[in-house]
Amino acid sequence: MDSVFALVGDGYAIVAADASAARSILVFKHDEDKIMELDSHKLLVGAGVPADCAHFNEYIQRNLTLYELNNDIKLSTHGSANYIRGELATALRKGPYQSNLLLAGYDAQDGVSLYHMDYMASLSKVNFGAHGYAANFILSVFDRDWKKGMNLQEGLEVVRRCIHELRTRFLISQPVFILKVVDAAGTRVVTL
């Protein structure tokens, strides 16, 4: 029942996720933050089985912190994406995580980047992406409205259109979305 999506603009990335915690026909709450801050300049969001998403995201966060403590250097967003992909691939052969992920980050050298991963451990660098039921509705909005070099206000407008599309066309009510931005200043929560 998750709807998560993200886009890259001029020096920033916006990550959005619905805030509903649901199972079967029951909604438990509408304030679940599904977007994890891996460090000061990386955001990871997952869609899938809630236990798998929570466990895997925490596992990744702790291991990236351990890597930084052991080596006195943070992994780049590209390096983190490849590490995550490797962990998904290893788990695939043992006990797979049913978790589809979007990783957004900012690096001083490379700027902002967004990576799309699925539970089969495929990895691709993208300008926008979506997982969960949202992908069925909003990829067309991204295809139509996303353009290279958008400023933050234009990016938020595209997100606003995506959420409007979900509220108009999607059968299941997802009244609350949490949005976070990552850029040179770090990560922060934004509102529409």
TrEMBL record:
Pfam families cross-referenced by the UniProt entry: Proteasome (PF00227)
GO biological process per UniProt: proteasomal protein catabolic process
Name recorded for this polypeptide: Proteasome subunit beta
Quaternary structure and partners: Component of the proteasome complex.
Compartment annotation: Cytoplasm; Nucleus
Role: Component of the proteasome, a multicatalytic proteinase complex which is characterized by its ability to cleave peptides with Arg, Phe, Tyr, Leu, and Glu adjacent to the leaving group at neutral or slightly basic pH. The proteasome has an ATP-dependent proteolytic activity.
GO cellular component: cytoplasm; nucleus; proteasome core complex
Classification via PANTHER family: METALLOPROTEASE TLDD, PROTEASOME SUBUNIT BETA TYPE-1
Record-stated family: Belongs to the peptidase T1B family.
Domain of life assignment: Eukaryota
Keywords: Cytoplasm, Nucleus, Proteasome
InterPro entries reported for this sequence: Ntn_hydrolases_N, Proteasome_beta2, Proteasome_bsu_CS, Proteasome_sua/b, Proteasome_suB-type
